[in-house]
């Protein structure tokens, strides 16, 4: 592994200048390394962070990827990580013209990392430096405690998808907004539930608050509430009563174990808290990447195509570019390609915003031909997709913009399969061309960890009581025993998990199109002394 040479670095800097001219925004400093195919394979399974802590699953993934490479040799073009500065890795046998295309793709990723609000908590951190410190700490703990370190990592990794990512993000954004709990209570509850103001009076109060902040940023809130108390003396007592009853939202399971586990807080076990915190913070850092996969890849693909086609360095390599680009961004008839779907959505958003389709007048149109001919020349397409890039995740992106017009334009459909009993083969067929069904298929492919919360009022006699909110998907039963075993070890006492089990009644054999009937029953799992039991609630 080595830094790219000066010639290639100049190409990268030229790509940055062209990207900024088009509106992309990113920090000046970046690091680019040249690696071999095999080096790239070893980087990818560790979430592309070379300094990430060592764990046996990483070794298994490396071996698996190497096995795939032996059977199906491939040329991974690049990989980029969200660090300060951003670090990207490139294959050592890429020609210059291909590097230009890849650089644009990487710049698109960097722009997304550094401007999408779901990555806000990563903007001020040096992940590679922190990961290196974590790696050294775990290596030292391994020398002192041996295999028990790996047991703790294993148990923590079993529940690292339950971290409070949104609560952490909410705290950060709330801090920057400058709004205190008093402001929240006044506008969200006191004016609406206690005073029951009219909308016009409520808006007037907001304007007065904003004006107070504008006149004096530091003391504006204090001055505003001084006037509020003069007009509504009961506010101070009501807010104090609210503060006494207010309970902070529950933290995620890993943080709860760190704070409340008697076992982990023993002097001889405090080292385990450091290991669990490393697993938790690393998981939170990578949460936005898995929640913005389609948007991130679509944004990078949009820009590598847009910028490369305007670059004079493409001359003589148009066919080569078309071949590589088609392999990356072609829309499959069956399955999902996040590069292709995201890129087409951004192109469609830009075009629709230019036409003025995101307006009340357009929504009122129901005639297909009238919707096709509608065009207001707003010149706002590029600004619109930049705002989408900043504020959306995959779920909101798909839920907001995968409509029937998009499905029809790209000839998308939901495919399914059925058994041909005469030939005894599976046949694929078009099940639906409705946007609702296509969105549901996309939603099913998104990352959606279960919602499992600690219930303190039911955690009696030392038992840790967990509640799984029923969201239409059951927990994977084959993982329950090992996961609850790990939680029991970290908690130091029995664990109870309340969840919903699905009972599926098969579809009728005479009606092939009938969907299986699913019924839900509430059950409780107990893990006590490493033995799992189940009972109906």
Total helical elements: 23
Radius of gyration computed on alpha carbons: 27 Å
- Count of domain modules: 5
| Content of β-strand | 5-15%
Find the count of extended strands (DSSP E, 2+ residues). Answer: 11
N→C terminal distance: 57 Å
Identify the strand order in the major beta sheet: 7-8-9-10-11
Q: Tell me about the largest β-sheet.
A: 5 strands, mixed
- Average pLDDT metric: 86
Indicate the overall shape. Answer: globular
The secondary structure category is: alpha+beta
Uncertain segments of ≥5 residues (pLDDT<50)?
none
Please bin the fraction of helical residues: 40-55%
Structure report:
The chain is α+β, with helices and mostly antiparallel strands. It has five domains: 150 residues, no CATH class; 77 residues, no CATH class; 76 residues, no CATH class; 120 residues, no CATH class; 85 residues, no CATH class. The protein contains 23 helices and eleven strands. The strands form three sheets. Strands 7-8-9-10-11 form a five-stranded mixed beta sheet. A four-stranded mixed beta sheet has the order 1-2-4-3. β10 and β11 form a beta hairpin. α8 crosses α11. The relative contact order is 0.08. The model has no long low-confidence stretch (mean pLDDT 86).
Name a few traits of the molecule.
537 residues; alpha+beta; 5 domains; five-stranded mixed β-sheet; four-stranded mixed β-sheet
Topology overview:
Elements: E1 2-3, H1 6-21, E2 30-35, H2 37-43, H3 56-71, E3 78-81, E4 86-91, H4 96-113, H5 127-145, H6 148-157, H7 165-177, H8 181-194, H9 199-215, H10 220-231, H11 234-245, H12 253-260, H13 270-291, H14 293-309, H15 318-329, H16 338-355, H17 360-363, H18 368-373, H19 381-391, H20 394-401, H21 404-409, E5 414-420, E6 425-432, H22 435-445, E7 452-454, E8 464-468, H23 477-491, E9 495-505, E10 517-528, E11 531-536
Parallel strand pairs: 2-4, 8-9
Antiparallel strand pairs: 1-2, 3-4, 5-6, 7-8, 9-10, 10-11
Helix pairs in contact: 1-4, 2-3, 4-14, 5-13, 6-13, 6-23, 8-11, 9-10, 14-16, 16-19
């Amino acid at each position: 592994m080595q830094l790219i040479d000066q010639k290639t670095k100049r190409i990268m800097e030229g790509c940055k200048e062209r990207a900024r001219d088009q509106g992309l925004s990113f920090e000046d400093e970046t690091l680019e390394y040249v690696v071999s195919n095999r080096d790239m394979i070893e980087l990818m399974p560790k979430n592309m962070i070379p300094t990430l802590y060592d764990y046996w699953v990483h070794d298994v993934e490396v071996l698996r990827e190497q096995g795939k490479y032996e059977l199906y040799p491939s040329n991974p073009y690049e990989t980029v990580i969200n660090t300060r500065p951003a670090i990207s890795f490139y294959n050592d046998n890429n020609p210059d013209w291909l590097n230009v295309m890849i650089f644009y793709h990487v710049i698109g990723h960097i722009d997304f990392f550094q401007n999408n609000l779901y990555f806000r908590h990563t903007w001020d951190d040096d992940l590679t430096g922190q990961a290196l410190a974590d790696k050294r700490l775990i290596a030292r703990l391994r020398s002192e405690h041996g295999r028990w370190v790996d047991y703790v990592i294993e148990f923590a990794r079993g529940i690292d998808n339950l971290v409070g990512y949104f609560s952490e993000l909410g705290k950060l954004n709330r801090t920057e907004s400058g709004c205190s709990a008093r402001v929240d209570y006044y506008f969200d509850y006191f004016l609406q539930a206690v005073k029951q103001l009219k909308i016009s009076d409520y808006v007037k109060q907001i304007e007065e608050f904003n004006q107070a902040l504008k006149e004096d940023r530091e003391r504006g809130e204090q001055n505003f509430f001084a006037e509020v108390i003069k007009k509504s003396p009961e506010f101070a007592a009501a807010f104090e009563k609210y503060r006494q009853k207010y309970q902070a939202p529950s933290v995620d399971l890993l943080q709860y174990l760190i704070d409340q586990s008697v076992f982990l807080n023993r002097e001889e076990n405090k080292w385990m808290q450091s290991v669990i915190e490393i697993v938790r913070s690393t998981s939170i850092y990578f949460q936005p990447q898995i929640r913005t996969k389609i948007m991130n890849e679509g944004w990078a693909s949009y820009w590598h195509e847009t910028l490369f086609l305007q670059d004079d360095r493409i001359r003589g390599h148009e066919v080569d570019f078309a071949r590589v680009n088609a392999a990356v961004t072609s829309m499959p008839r069956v399955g999902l390609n996040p590069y292709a779907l995201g890129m087409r959505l951004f192109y469609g958003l830009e075009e629709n915003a230019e036409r003025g389709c995101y307006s009340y007048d357009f929504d009122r149109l129901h005639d297909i031909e009238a919707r096709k001919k509608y065009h207001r020349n707003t010149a706002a397409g590029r600004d619109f997709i930049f705002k989408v890039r900043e504020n959306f995740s995959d779920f909101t992106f798909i839920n907001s913009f995968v409509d029937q017009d998009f499905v029809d334009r790209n000839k998308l459909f939901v495919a399914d399969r059925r058994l041909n009993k005469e030939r005894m083969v599976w046949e694929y067929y078009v099940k639906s061309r409705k946007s609702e069904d296509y969105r549901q298929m996309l939603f099913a492919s998104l990352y959606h960890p279960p919602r499992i919360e600690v219930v303190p009022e039911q955690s009696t006699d030392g038992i840790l009581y967990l509640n799984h909110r029923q969201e239409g998907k059951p927990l994977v039963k084959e993982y329950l025993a090992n996961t609850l075993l790990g939680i029991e070890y970290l908690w130091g006492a029995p664990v109870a998990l309340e969840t919903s089990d699905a009972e599926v009644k098969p579809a009728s054999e005479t009606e092939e199109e009938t969907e299986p009937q699913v019924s839900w029953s509430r059950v409780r799992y107990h893990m006590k002394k490493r033995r799992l039991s189940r009972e109906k609630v």
